[in-house]
Amino acid sequence: MRITTELERLAAPVSTRDHFQGQSNAPLTLVEYGDFECPYCGTAHRVVKAIQEKLGERLRFVYRHFPLTQRHPNAENAAQAAEAAGARGDFWPMHDLLFEHQEALADEDLAEYAASLGLDGAEILAEMELGTYATRVREDFSGGIKSGVNGAPTFFINDVLYNGESDLQSMLVALAEAEHRE
Asked: Which of 92, 118, 143, 151 is least buried, going by the fewest C-beta atoms within 10 A?
């Protein structure tokens, strides 16, 4: 039996501060540390959607920001735009829009996406300029580092680092194994 080290466990437990879909008492919790500009995260987004559809109420999905700004210059602002939308009750619609339009994440695009959700794009850009949500994004990133995250996407299943492939079948197998362990 493989023993999980502290660095392979989620350092910051899931809490009410997190953005999540599903029931808080679901038997499975899938946490993703992601980057809106990362193409691998874009692929993982589609996989997570399929997992959610397949597992339904048995899964709680949590998204945390892990912008890799050295490689993805728009990732930080995209994360802040998602947080700004979240402050207005629209985190998940913005989350989905950002992943669906990864090739267009400049500030003017972010304002357009906000407007398409009925939000004030100029106000969201102003908040990004002020760094209103920068601390929140940094907290997610820091929690990822403390949990051993060094790239995106990185997943945790029921607080344990998932080291497998990010394809649908592999993740479903790992989730089923985790559910049977509980």
From this structure: 118
CA-CA distance, 98 to 94, in Å (whole number)? Answer: 6
Q: How many Å apart are CA 68 and CA 89, to the nearest integer? A: 25
Which helix (H) or strand (E) segment is 110 a member of? helix 107-116
The DSSP letter of residue 97 is H
CB neighbour list of residue 43: distance below 8 Å, 6 or more residues apart? 166
Q: Is the pLDDT of residue 55 over 70?
A: yes
SS3 string of 119-173? CCHHHHHHHHHHCCCHHHHHHHHHHHHHCCCCCCCEEEECCEEECCCCCHHHHHH
CA distances from 178 to 34, 98, 153 (A): 21, 30, 19
Which pair of structure tokens corresponds to residue 25?
Answer: 């008492």
Q: Look up the pTM and report it.
A: 0.94
- Place 171 in a pLDDT band, splitting at 50, 70 and 90: very high
Give residues with Cβ within 8 angstroms of 91, minimum separation 6. 19, 82, 83, 85
